[in-house]
Description:
Elements: H1 2-7, H2 10-35, H3 39-45, H4 57-65, H5 68-99, H6 105-117, H7 120-133, H8 144-163, H9 168-176, H10 181-209, H11 213-218, H12 227-235, H13 245-279
Helix pairs in contact: 2-13, 4-13, 5-8, 5-10, 6-8, 8-10, 9-10, 10-13, 12-13
Amino acid sequence: MKRFIARAPRRAFVILLALFALLWASPFFLAWNSSLKSPEEFASTGVLEPAATVSFANYVQVWVGLDFPLKVLNSMIISVGALLVSMVMAFFIAYAISIGKHKWRTFVLATCVVIFLMPQEAFAYPVFLISKMVHMYGNVAFLIIPLGITGAAFATFLLGNIMNHFPTELLEAASIDGASRWQVIRRVVIPLMMPSLLTVALLLFVANWNEYLLTLLLLPDYESQTVPLAVASLNIGDAWNPPPMPVVAAASILGAIPSFIIFAFFQRSLIRGITLGSSR
Length: 280
């Protein structure tokens, strides 16, 4: 395969990758085109024909009709809160089992694999019962805990394998210079691990933002809905009956904007973190 790739023209691979990129992004462009149409124009033209007149009335309708700022705030609280819990837990656990060479490293990593590979349906009902027992059912903050724990398992597995190849010479040199354990972590480990940390954090944020099952189970109130729940309720006709497709498309675009913004700001760190992980 390597010989075939080396002999093939580079331009052909560029064209092939461009075609794959266009194919992958085509649903977004179709949704964007549909969101600019009126329901009457969409009914007569469909999704493929370009919009005759550009109108953002559907976005205004979604923003006001679904109380979209509140849904964005709920999703942001859950996503960022669970992300902080996951990253703090994962970093120190990964540091202990990899750089600290803890004897239970294999057991901890195996447990993390079991946790993040376990389907959510397996622990959704126990989480539901716990939320009822502690009187946190319907509370946005409670969802941070289960998402933070499952995210910590995924992050620990990734960071643990990366830290396992951390240059111990730097840690020994810092210790000889009189640095404490916390100073070594803050001034040596974290700066060198920053690309990998940002990469894992980005993946967790997107996963938390798109979370649907647990939010559907634990957040029954309209005021506590997240963005995916709001878009889904619109799609099944809770807000409009029948739901106009251009409005659904506009809601989908608005729900995806935060992920696009995060990727746009941290794409260099994402690429660098993936590159460093593959080189190790």
